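Dear H.,

Thanks for agreeing to be a second pair of eyes. The structure we're designing against is below in token form, covering all 107 positions.
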């Protein structure tokens, strides 16, 4: 396991359960709004899921993660219908990029 210093996924990091780094392919956007993007991540190894939110505010970007038992399908039921396809995952990357750079430069 090697670390990617410039990888925006560094914000999300690794699975809290098995320490396996999350991979982009398992990131899905659950909900996208102006200020907040909610991602659903599934660990490739142990299949534990996590909800991850990037919140944009005047003060900066706040990131928070939460372990969940919900599959992406379950989570959809809770979080509405704005489900996007794999094409929008690129936007998720951009959102994470923004969050990542703000994280870097705020120090
Ligand atoms: Zn895991």
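And this is the sequence the design step returned. I haven't edited it by hand at all.
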């Amino acid at each position: 396991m090697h670390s990617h210093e410039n990888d925006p996924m560094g914000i999300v990091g690794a699975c809290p359960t098995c320490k396996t780094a999350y991979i982009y392919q398992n990131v899905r956007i659950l909900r996208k709004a102006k200020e907040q993007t909610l991602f659903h991540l599934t660990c490739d190894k142990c299949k534990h899921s996590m909800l991850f939110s990037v919140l944009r505010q005047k003060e900066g970007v706040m990131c928070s993660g939460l372990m969940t038992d919900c599959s992406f399908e379950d989570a959809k039921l809770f979080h509405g219908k704005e489900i996007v396809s794999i094409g929008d995952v690129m936007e998720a990357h951009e959102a994470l990029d923004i969050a990542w750079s703000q994280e870097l430069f705020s120090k």
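Two observations from my side: The CA atoms of residues 31 and 80 lie 7 Å apart. The pocket of zinc ion is lined by residues 15, 17-18, 20, 43, 45-46, 48 (CB under 6 Å).

Warmly,
E.
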